[in-house]
Prior knowledge:
Blueprint: H1 4-12, E1 21-23, H2 32-42, E2 46-49, H3 56-68, E3 72-75, H4 76-79, E4 82-86, E5 91-95
Parallel strand pairs: 1-2, 2-3
Antiparallel strand pairs: 4-5
Helix pairs in contact: 1-2
Amino acid sequence: xxxxxxxxxxxxxxxxxxxxxxxxxxxxxxxxxxxxxxxxxxxxxxxxxxxxxxxxxxxxxxxxxxxxxxxxxxxxxxxxxxxxxxxxxxxxxxxxxx
Length: 98
C-alpha cells in the first residue's frame, strides 16, 4: 500500500499518471488531502476497495465521495472478492456476491 509519503512523492515529481481502475490503499480510509490530489491526477473510472465490517461507516462515506466524482466503487464488503480482467482495451470488474 502506498502511504501519504509515497503519494506526496508522486505528486511532487509532477509525473503525469493515469489509470482506468485503481485499487485504493489502506481500505480507502487514508490519504486525506494527498489522496484527493492523487485521485484528481489519476482520474480513474472505477476504484476497488478492500473493506471489513468494522469499516462500514467509512466505506459509505468513501462510496458517496467517489460516486459524486462519477467514479464507480467496488467494495469487498458488498461484493466479496473482486476480480478485474482486461483484454488490454476493455475491462470487467466483478464481485463474487454481485
